[in-house]
Amino acid sequence: MHPLPSQCPICGGDVVITQINCRDCNTTIDGRFTSRTFSQLTPKQMDFVETFVRLEGKITHMEKELGYSYPTIRKLLHDVIRALGYEPGGEEEMPELSEKERESILNNLDEGKISYDDAIKQLKDEEK
Fold first, then answer.
1. Which of 104, 98, 97 is CA-nearest to residue 125?
2. Rounded to 5 degrees, what are φ and ψ at 80?
3. Digits of tens for pLDDT over the chain (128 positions)?
4. Is 7 helix (H, G, I), strand (E, B) or coil?
5. Nearest Cα to 7, choosing from 40, 35, 38, 34?
């Protein structure tokens, strides 16, 4: 079975689902139906989402599994977010720290080498 295309292969326009068929009883329903949100993703983006979910969103595991760097994983995630019709980031976006840098700051905080305020400052300064 082929995946549902989200765009017309001829003109690039949005496609509309007009028929549903049951494989078991061969019942066919005609009409205009909306597709699920994830049908807008390319096969590569859908593979990324499946891997992301399977690895519980842990970017370090994504890096190992896919062989991509942290910034590449973030870019792919942002591409998926945009394809779903959202804009990533904003005020709540995490700073552009590598997992090792973030872990080092948090370890220093746990070990009492830096204060909570210093840790927050370091995490925020890295964003600039």
1. 97
2. -65, -45
3. 777 777 788 998 878 888 989 999 999 999 988 766 787 788 899 999 999 999 999 989 999 999 999 889 999 999 999 888 888 875 455 547 777 888 888 888 888 899 888 888 888 775 44
4. strand
5. 40
Query: Where are the domains positioned within the chain?
Result: 94-128
Q: What are the residues whose beta carbons fall under 8 Å from the beta carbon of 15, sequence distance 6 or more? A: 4, 5, 6, 7, 8
DSSP-assigned beta bridge partners for residue 113: none
What CA dihedral angle connects 36, 38, 50 and 69, to 10 degrees? -170
Hunting for tokens 């807008």 — which residue is that? Answer: 40
pTM for the whole thing?
A: 0.51
